[in-house]
Amino acid sequence: MFPVNAVLRWKDAVYRLIHRDADRLWLFPIESRSPSCIAVGIGDFGREMNAGTVAEIPDPFTALKLRKMTDAENRRGEENLALIQPLIEDGVRAFESGCLKKLISRLSAEFSGNERLAYQRKLKRTLVLWWQRGQVPAVLMPDWAPKTNVRAYSVKPGRKSPQTENAPALNDEIRKAFDKVCRERLMVPGHDSVKEAYTRFLHDWMKTRKVTESQSPTLYQFRNYYYKTYPKAERTRDQATEDRFEKDLRPLTGSTYDIARGPGHIYEIDATMDNVQLLNDSRTEVVGRPYLYLVTDVFTGVIVGFDISFEAPQLKTAGDALFNAMTDKVAYCARYDITIPRKWWPAQGVPATVTADNAELTSDQALHLNRAYGVSVNFTKTRRADQKGTVESSIGMVQKSLRGLIRHRGLVLKDGALLRKAGDMDSRGDAVLTLDDYRLLVIRAILIINRRRRNNVPPGLPASIPARCLDIWHHYESRGHSMLRRENDPNLLRLSLLKHYNLTCSAKGMCVEGIRYLPEDPDYLRYFTRGSSPQYSDKWQIVLDPSDITHAWLQPDEKLKPTKYVQCSLAPASAHLAGMTLRAAREYIREAALTESRILPEEMAFSGKQKAEQEEIIRNAERQKPQDERSVRQKVKGIKTKRSEEIELRESSAPRVTPEQKEKTPKADAQSKAPEADAQSKAPEADAQAEAPESRSGSMSRTGGGSMASNAPAGHKPVKPPREQSQPQRSKGLGLDMHFDGGNIDMNLI
């Protein structure tokens, strides 16, 4: 059997069981507005239950019973309960219609006239609420729910104003038109103003209804309907995009301590273009705004690392910031003549997780840091800066702390606009800081910000520990809650943070970005043996140091534990790039390619002209060659002798070194007369000997032999040596044959 106050569905109606005695049940129809109950016998009701026509349903007034009441509402409920208390205490008599009327008449006997009628209606109304909502004091609270029934007025009620004097009263048709305009023009991202939306409504209303402006709903009516129908929370939600609502408007229900368990658990990294104009190192030219990278620990809020450069956000600059976050800050500050104790900036080591956006740390590049050190890299959603809000707020604090110092020294706004008003000077020309100067300012600012007070205190922090970022770090680090891991090999850490390039291989070496390398390890150098294709793995990757490309590091197996890198040097084909930065090498290769493309047409034209001359020489030689009917065997017979004679003839006609002419003394003249006489006596014999080879050479020329005359171009006549120089036997006696060849003196031993 059901308990008292149970809500039952029976015969397509809903009842509340308000009383039960030995043989009867008293049910009150929940939808009824009069205090009348139904009495049902327990036996009959039991049969209905067995037939399945009765079922218990949830109480629709549970929320009223559980609501929290104010003192005024409690007093009002107690007054209503005291009002019907005589009816409730009378028991079963209150459930019977005739008895209830007599009880109400007796209670209202002290009143007369309209007051008596009003009192009786109040008794009945309060008793209905008591039975309808569950017979507990909480249900007797005043019901302040807004009225839902539309007031049936033919004209607009209330005090008239000049704007609404002739305005029609709101009806369903006007409300429907208002609602359509509100949803299309006001309850959307990038919404119109209320006045603009009403203008569109008025135009469409007058056009479709054929009425005048004075006969149309007014702006006051439209604005009143909009603000009453759509609450502030609903307007805020619908008028914002999904990303903006999640990022800036949604309720904040958690803190960073829900996801971070200690120092070094989660590092967040982000970059922004800073709001200051800087000079070059010579302080003569403005070079623009730098990019600021910050790395922040989520648990403590400590800024653990940073980087400043003129290069746009990329893997290199992000790697520089992470490398700074994971290495010793005392040594880093000492490079810029800043002496600090370790407790001022204690962050050193590899974190467990790095959170970044998708701009620099791509998933492929993040795998190398994960495989080398087990660091998990998480990426935020697009346009969701709130997912790394710790580092975002750190960037704002750094810029705000420096804004007063550089206000009139090149400060600009985030969007690049000048921080000035009409009549102020353009402060960009007043820039005085270089990149190194600004780096020193940022270091000092970070030391200050790391001592700030945290708004949210981590759970378990003793009250004796100041809620400062550094104090929180030292407290949890001293108790073993730091999740940082020390790295003893900074080179390996640096390589894992640099970009890994895919490469191509040939016998000349590994090629990346147009630069060729060869490994220094003999075990890997053997892959580049000439005469065969390199048998390398397609999973090889190479790491370049952007500041100096003289060396590179090959990663032959990215899954090898521990991670292995093989040092490589520039191949001979790229040795001229030694000492360059990667940017300079790219520019050099690009400029060399442009130069080659500019010179190539000239070289092709020159080569074509020379080829044409060569072909003309061949055609002339073919025309000058006489007809020869001999066989090939006859033509090549005695070729060795003919070759020797041709060599001798050409050597004898080659230019000679002119001996120096010395001044002769009378004694030397007398001594030289005897040899001259002998030479004159032997001249006929020498002429006879010289004519013999000439006649043989002439006969060869006529028979197609390999003489110089036969192969000379048209118009060329071989030059015969003077008779006094045609003495091969005497030349052999000297042991050397000296002649000019292309402007140089060649000395060939004979």
The CATH homologous superfamily of the domain at 253-478 corresponds to Ribonuclease H-like superfamily/Ribonuclease H
Number of strands: 21
Q: Which spans of ≥5 residues are poorly predicted at pLDDT below 50?
A: 414-419, 681-750
How big is the Rg? 53 Å
Count of runs of 4 or more consecutive helical residues: 24
State the helicity in percent bands.
Answer: 40-55%
CATH topology of the domain at 253-478: Nucleotidyltransferase, domain 5
CATH architecture classification of the domain at 253-478: 2-Layer Sandwich
Walk me through the structure.
There is one protein chain. With 750 residues, this protein is of the alpha+beta class. Among the domains are: 7-140, no CATH class; 172-239; 253-478, Ribonuclease H-like superfamily/Ribonuclease H (Nucleotidyltransferase, domain 5), CATH 3.30.420.10; 499-586, no CATH class. The chain is 42% helix and 13% strand. The chain is built from 24 helices and 21 strands. The strands form 5 sheets. A 7-stranded antiparallel β-sheet has the order 13-17-18-19-16-15-14. A 5-stranded antiparallel β-sheet has the order 4-3-2-1-5, with helices on one face. Strands 10-9-6-11-12 form a 5-stranded mixed β-sheet, with helices on both faces. Strand 3 and strand 4 form a beta hairpin. The longest helix has 43 residues, at 582-624. It is elongated, with a radius of gyration of 53 Å. The model is unreliable at 414-419 and 681-750 (pLDDT under 50).
List the helices and strands and how they pair.
Elements: E1 7-10, E2 13-20, E3 24-29, E4 38-41, H1 42-51, E5 54-56, H2 62-66, H3 71-89, H4 97-107, H5 113-133, H6 172-186, H7 194-209, H8 219-229, H9 232-239, H10 242-249, E6 266-273, E7 278-279, E8 286-288, E9 291-297, E10 303-309, H11 315-326, H12 329-334, E11 353-356, H13 363-373, E12 376-379, H14 389-403, H15 435-449, H16 469-478, H17 490-497, E13 500-502, E14 504-506, E15 509-512, E16 515-519, H18 522-525, E17 541-544, E18 551-555, E19 566-570, H19 582-624, H20 632-636, H21 639-652, H22 666-703, H23 708-711, H24 728-734, E20 736-741, E21 744-749
Parallel strand pairs: 6-11, 11-12
Antiparallel strand pairs: 1-2, 1-5, 2-3, 3-4, 6-9, 7-8, 9-10, 13-17, 14-15, 15-16, 16-19, 17-18, 18-19, 20-21
